[in-house]
Hints:
Blueprint: E1 2-6, H1 13-24, E2 28-30, H2 31-41, H3 44-54, H4 61-72, E3 81-84, H5 90-102, E4 109-114, H6 117-125, E5 127-130, E6 136-138, E7 157-158, H7 165-179, H8 181-189, E8 192-196, H9 201-214
Parallel strand pairs: 1-3, 1-4, 2-3, 4-8
Antiparallel strand pairs: 5-6, 5-7
Helix pairs in contact: 1-9, 2-3, 4-5, 6-7
One adenosine-5'-diphosphate (ADP) is lined by residues 7, 9-15, 123, 126-127, 136-138, 141-142, 197, 199-201, 204.
Amino acid sequence: MKLILLGPPGAGKGTQAKMLTEKFSIPQISTGDILRAAVKAGTTMGLKAKEFMDAGGLVPDEVVVGIVRDRLQEVDCENGFILDGFPRTVAQADALQVSLQKMDKELDHVISLDVDAEALVERLTGRRTCKDCGRGYHISFDPSKVEGVCDVCSSELIQRDDDREDTIRKRLQVYASQTEPLINYYRETGVLIELDGMQQIKLVQEQILARLQAS
Ligand code: ADP
Ligand code: ADP
Ligand code: ZN
């Protein structure tokens, strides 16, 4: 199964990708996670990407396209993958088509999660992420069993630098101008599944699985 999860920051892409990874035993490819790992490791690419990320902007297309192209060649992607947070521009979507064609592969579905702007701000300001395993939580909507501690690996939960209200507003603007056009882009290719992302996590999860099984 070759999937894309599409939606604004805070729509629940990462949350649902984690569920799909377990269900279908295919990797979650999150460009955000890969970039944050590069920032943490202090690589040249990471240092450059950090400036764009801290400002709430997008990292240049050629950087993320290169990351995804290389990642898709790895053996664990043979049976499929879940792209989370990529593509984010029409240029990235075009580049992905070229990469997939070269590998003789095709996308099965693009799952689009729709969520109101105010709900997104509430979700992102309350988001907490495990600093080691990357599992996401929300202080009210999906809390960990023990405050500040990851249920899975007992590491510390942290708040992302870019989950501050001013940066969030900027990211939502960037989403509207650069990424939202991809909804039409994929609608035209007939692979789009549109879901109401305002519902509870479990309901969104059930609907994704139902739609994937129906097609
Ligand atoms: P969120 O889960 O809030 O949508 P991500 O973790 O996917 O955020 O991304 C965090 C930041 O990393 C983005 O704001 C952007 O700066 C950068 N980034 C991630 N994916 C891409 C991409 N496909 N193209 C450009 N920049 C990206
Ligand atoms: P994205 O990867 O699209 O940026 P996340 O999956 O990280 O989004 O979710 C953003 C925040 O909202 C997290 O704190 C997560 O726990 C919470 N969340 C995700 N889906 C829902 C939902 N359906 N209802 C309420 N909160 C949600
Ligand atoms: Zn953890």
